[in-house]
Amino acid sequence: MPIKNQKAVIVGAGFTGLSAAYYLSKNNPDLEIVIVEKEGQAGGLAGGFKLKNWTWSLDYFYHHLFTSDKDVLELLNRLGLADMVKFKLPKTSLFIKQKKIKFDSPQDVITYPFLNFFNKLYLGSGLAFLKLWPFGLKLEAYTTAKFLPKIIGQPAYQQIFAPLLKSKFDRYAGRVNLAWFWARIKSRSRQLGYPQGGFAHLASRLVDKLQNQIKVEFQFHTKVTSIASHDQTFELKTDKGKTKADIIVLTSPPETWQNYNLLTKNYYQSFIKDKSYLSAQTLILRLNKRFFDDKTYWLNINQTEYPFLIVAEHTNFIAKKYYNNQHLVYIGNYLPLDHKYLNYEPTQLLKEFWPYLTKISPGLKKHHLIDCHLFQARFGQPVMPVGYSKEIPPLKVGSSNLYIANMLQVYPYDRGINYAVKLGRRLARFITNDRKIV
Ligand SMILES: Cc1cc2nc3c(=O)[nH]c(=O)nc-3n(C[C@H](O)[C@H](O)[C@H](O)COP(=O)(O)OP(=O)(O)OC[C@H]3O[C@@H](n4cnc5c(N)ncnc54)[C@H](O)[C@@H]3O)c2cc1C
């Protein structure tokens, strides 16, 4: 039965919050929905910025969609925005033994230079097996580090995936379960999608549609600081004032929940405190010259002595004409919360990275650099250990009409816009069916 004469407040205008608003309102046309967002724009982790003379915005963190991202494409289709996303086949490579090796197709496994024929066959058939295997969750009983070598062979594992796991998960690398790895192989396509204008622009178009077609109210530049409950209703305190709600959906990251109220604090203590996650960091270089002359978009760094995990030249994926003909390069990292780089200034980090960057792109000189920009998100990459399906935090907080939705709940899939949208839809259905509020 649809919810009537009630007000839902969604905290956070990332893709989970936007999707939850859309599907909540579809299921409950009479429900009043307000989204409260601390920033001045929607998009959250998939938000971005636009510099002078740029016509498109650039994501704070590199983002793209996969052709298998059906849930976000369905939402965009419903709102008449699907045409904004264009798919392309950019070049992905590995940096290994000081060489850039293209690695984004079955042919690339065949031509891979550092394994013998037998080991390449082992690798190729192992990856094909994972792609076809339908029961991914069964693999959560094993760690990737122990079991993946059995599927693709020890030499391929040691060369290709062990260094990437180490750089991505640092001290937690040995804990990551195989279901998480399976989901990445299963769901990712070679073709990558990007919305015209950038992901921040896509999010702002979604805001327009939700405001105008569905009458969702947005309060930007409004930070929720605490939540008080009175019987069946809530009062949210923000830095702009107070607002009442019958239903609350929190999509803000876990560190914020401890401040809201006792319920969310207890939820944090019960379901989040012992979970591990890493911060995401990107240093974005603006250059007046191409970084990868061979038009590589994405380079995974397989040499663990390098102080970063990926280099992605955005303007080898999306035309530089949208960015005043400048060349834009992400240097990406995932870092434990106590890592020293999280306290560095952009120029300090660049100084640390520069010797390695010039090894990857020998033609790079100081005068090619226009400037650099640093972004980081504390809650950037959760670690999914063995048996994680039994530890997924619930959608509902206690017995109240308070709900929590975020990337810890999209397992076995990795965080992603598609899974944020899918979670928003699942949550909307869950809330609508939740007997307490009908
Ligand atoms: C480095 C990196 C690369 C990624 N690459 C991809 C990719 O290529 N493709 C892909 O699909 N996904 C990618 N993702 C994942 C994707 O960005 C996330 O899964 C998705 O954006 C999560 O959306 P969300 O709404 O759940 O959370 P968020 O985006 O974190 O949204 C939460 C919102 O809450 C707001 N908020 C926080 N505190 C408060 C408060 N107190 N009051 C009010 N508002 C508040 C925040 O400002 C934010 O807007 C990447 C993520 C990272 C970190």
Would you give an account of this structure?
The protein has twelve helices and 20 strands. By secondary structure, it is of the alpha/beta class. The strands form five sheets. The protein has a seven-stranded mixed beta sheet, sandwiched between helices. Helix 1 (15-27) runs parallel beside helix 8. The chain is globular. It binds flavin-adenine dinucleotide. Flavin-adenine dinucleotide binds next to helix 1, strand 19 and helix 12.
Beta fraction: 15-25%
CATH architecture of the largest domain: 3-Layer(bba) Sandwich
Bound molecules: flavin-adenine dinucleotide
Oligomer: single chain
Please identify the top-level CATH class of the largest domain.
Alpha Beta
Strands of the widest sheet, in order across it, are 8-7-16-17-18-15-19
Can you count the helices?
12
> What's the pLDDT, averaged over the residues?
96
Task: Please tell me what the overall shape is.
Answer: globular
CATH superfamily of the largest domain: FAD/NAD(P)-binding domain
Structural class: alpha/beta
